[in-house]
Amino acid sequence: MYVENANRATREGFITADNIEPNPKNPIIAAFFRNIGYADQLGSGVHNLFKYSKYYSGQEPEFIEGDVFKTIVPLNDEYSYDFVADKQEIKSADNNVRVPIRSADNKIMRKQQTKVLEYIKENGKITSHQAEILLQVKQRRARVILREMVEAGMQENM
Question: According to the lineage, what is the superkingdom (predicted)?
Fold first, then answer.
């Protein structure tokens, strides 16, 4: 992935995890948004990209500072932690709907989706908060699971 953005550079060259020096264009506004929880620590995104891109590509990202700030994040689907080479399928709770799974751990995904389908069958619907409690996951993960099920059309045949 390659991104360019206009920049008011304080220096030229490559940024690494060791030499990053966050420089906000407006430090008062940056501090305000950080204090009210709408922004993370300045530079934390760069640190996270260096930390996590290895899991998805085996390579480090590149940040090039200049009049145009360039970000290059290498992506490699086959190297990715959550890539599944063979397409596997599961059946819904009523055994009528077959849906492909795109997950690193198919057994956990199958159990989660089956629990959700059974809950919907018993109660008619489910909210992300109910899925969070049912699956014992964070609400953000529950939303992802529900969205994937909706996109796959799993709930339509209930």
Answer: Bacteria
Give the pLDDT confidence of 91-132 residue by residue, as tens digits: 444 444 444 444 445 666 778 888 888 898 899 888 989 999
Please indicate, yes or no, whether residues 9 and 46 belong to a single structural domain of this protein: yes
Q: Can you spell out the DSSP letters for 127-155?
A: -HHHHHHHHTS-HHHHHHHHHHHHHHTGG
Establish if 25 belongs to a structural domain: yes
Residue 78 lies in a domain: no
Helices (H), the chain: 27-35, 44-57, 106-123, 128-135, 139-152
Same domain, 99 and 152: yes
Question: How many folded domains does the chain comprise?
Answer: 2
The C-alpha atoms of residue 135 and residue 149 are separated, in whole angstroms, by: 14
Contact indicator for 2, 72 with CB cutoff of 8 Å = yes
Q: Is the pTM of this model over 0.70?
A: no
What pLDDT score does 156 carry? 59
**Structural domain of 48:** 2-72
